[in-house]
Amino acid sequence: MNRKYVDSRQAAKTWRPKSGSMSPGLKRARAPFLVRNIITGIILGTFAVGVYTYSIRAVRQDDFGDIDDEAKAQREAERLAQLEKMRRESATVLTVGEEKDVMERAARAVAKEINSARLGAPVDEISSLRASQSQSSPVLTEINTQRSTRGVLVGLLDKLLPGVLDPSRKTLVWGAPDVDNVGTASSKN
């Protein structure tokens, strides 16, 4: 039986008859490259050792003594600024009762503003006076901006890629329900 090709296992055995050893044929095939490979290895090794030695010597020459002084001065300046801030804030400290009273009054005022925004009409005399003095209060402006744009991405996408967002709700998923008022599973809204 005449074979045109040699079996790859038999060919491998001719180059490496035992694990880790080279056959005489493999040694002869590698002989022309031996000197070039040795020179290349020495050059690469010398380069690596040179970079390492240069780096170590360059770092050793640096004097880091002035960094400690700068860091101490910066920490002292920050500490003094924090003490000054605490001193200023301690002059306007409210008691717990005073703070509760202020927060309750603020919450009532915000609730009245929101109710008047929802109803479209002023709730009491103070609200009507405010409505006559200024057409838009900060609370109403905030409510309207929250309704019109939600987040930074909506504004960017609407400007850069018009038509990507749902025109009625400004959401990526067209026809998606409002996530700000989820409700319950049985709600029909």
From TrEMBL:
A Pfam cross-reference name: Coa3_cc
Major site of localization recorded for this protein: mitochondrion
Alphabetized UniProt keyword annotations: Membrane, Mitochondrion, Mitochondrion inner membrane, Transmembrane, Transmembrane helix
Keyword Membrane part of the UniProt annotation: yes
Ranges for domain Cytochrome c oxidase assembly factor 3 mitochondrial coiled-coil: 25-70
Residue stretches spanning the membrane: 33-54
Topology in membrane: Single-pass membrane protein
Subcellular location as annotated: Mitochondrion membrane
Region feature (Disordered): 1-26
InterPro entries the UniProt entry points to: Coa3, Coa3_CC
Nucleotide-binding keyword on record: no
Biological role stated in the UniProt entry: Required for assembly of cytochrome c oxidase (complex IV).
Record's subunit section: Component of 250-400 kDa complexes called cytochrome oxidase assembly intermediates or COA complexes.
Family recorded in the similarity comment: Belongs to the COA3 family.
Name of the molecule in the record: Cytochrome c oxidase assembly factor 3
Organism: Lentinula boryana
Lineage summary: Eukaryota, Fungi, Dikarya, Basidiomycota, Agaricomycotina
